[in-house]
Amino acid sequence: MSFHMLFSGIRNAFRKDELGLEIMHISLPTTLALAADPIASLIDTAFIGHIGPVELAAVGVSIAIFNQISKIAIIPLVSVTTSLVAEEDAVDKLQNQPSETEMLIHTSSVTEETKLEVEQIDPECSTSSRSVNRVAKLGHDKSYIPSASSAIVIGAILGVLQALSLIFTARPILNYMGVDYNSPMLKPAQQYLTLRSFGAPAVILSMAMQGVFRGIKDTKTPLYATIVGDVTNIILDPLLIFVLRLGVSGAAIAHIISQYLISLVLLWSLMKQVDLMPPSIQDFQFGKILKNGFLLLLKVTAVTFCVTLSASLAARQGSITMAAFQICLQIWMATSLLADGLAVSAQAILASAFAQRDYHKVITSASRVLQLGLILGLVLSFLLFSLLPFASKLFTNDVAVLHLIGIGIPYVAATQPLNSLAFVFDGVNYGASDFIYSAYSMILVALVSIFSLYMLSSSYGFSGIWIALSIYMSLRTFAGFWRIGTRSGPWHFLKENYALLQ
């Protein structure tokens, strides 16, 4: 069934109808925002590089530690927040539609009827029903979305916890990462990591708010906020690093200021659209966010372990193999940024459609984003096959490394359609609030992939690692097809609505 959904009407994948425009308006700003940070980081790295090679290496280790720890909190929080906010926003709009047309005549009766209708759709939405009544009584146009307030509170708490943990454990973590006590990198690395940790609350808080904006299908505001923050960072870097002679501390301070600026811009914009003050503590949605967030934490851990293991196995084969693997891996992963935009649009649109029980839109939206994901993957595959043999020389001049990159190119390029579909399927599953399946299927995929990595790397070396990673992405994509194809979980409605597939 899911194959039928993927290829049915694929000629209309770029059709500029209402759905096509909605996907574009969500995915394009998301992709640009995701691309802005790596570009700003490259410029940031260039400034730090002018301080000295030791400082550059030290900051590189510190950034890797900070980003890896942040990812553990950010990915589950943002993903869960996007889905829950999209559902509650859809319920809010469903309630307000009749009340606007009949407010002067049947205000109270319409509210009660709509509340019953929403509670039949999702019994857990009773909190949202009470909240919308509260909004009507206050007489303003702001929505009250319980998960928005809850995500912001959780994000702030996680940010403070991350900051405290990194501040007090910076040196032991750096030692564990290979920066010894006698290393000249230790002092600048610890200095940068400790200062950068003060920005952790702003980083996680801003990402939580980005999840809220994605849920209400506004991805332009996070893009503008990101641009403002990144430009500020780029302006402050030379001033603090060279003019005030603060060195790596100046780079960290510039980044902290930019992150808090992003948070303030997002918070100010969000407060104009959403009422963030809950009527009582009972209106918070901490339980749903933490429960589903823990499930996605399991998934993130499984994904991270597979990629980290592949890098570790490459490192065991020598520095040349490791250098070639890192170049191929960075290219392989960088292309996922383009698919992430489609994944976010799939998540936001499907979550709203499921909340409204608009199953026709569920199917058409899932079909369209998967088709676009497949086309994107095919285009990327063609470009990488064509350009990477020549572009690889931009990364290194070492003949041995280039030889191994040439071996890796077919795998990097050929798996692009699988990669794109796998990432888009993540968005589809999150939009369906299918977090349990996402987590447990990923754990199963990881177990098979780990076995493949060990077996194939020992037998076929560098090629074996990439064969195993190809199996890994194939299984992730298959898991997405399997869920829809078996019409299980949130897709059980397809058993009674076969006409939707036609």
From TrEMBL:
Membrane topology label: Multi-pass membrane protein
Organism: Arachis hypogaea
Annotated GO CC locations: membrane
GO molecular function: antiporter activity; xenobiotic transmembrane transporter activity
Keywords: Membrane, Transmembrane, Transmembrane helix
PANTHER family reported for this sequence: PROTEIN DETOXIFICATION 42 (PTHR42893:SF4), PROTEIN DETOXIFICATION 44, CHLOROPLASTIC-RELATED (PTHR42893)
Protein name, as recorded: Protein DETOXIFICATION
Domain of life: Eukaryota
Cellular localization per UniProt: Membrane
Family that this chain belongs to: Belongs to the multi antimicrobial extrusion (MATE) (TC 2.A.66.1) family.
InterPro entries linked to this entry: DinF-like (IPR044644), MATE_fam (IPR002528)
Residues passing through the membrane, by range: 151-174, 194-216, 223-244, 250-271, 292-311, 331-355, 367-388, 400-425, 437-456, 462-482
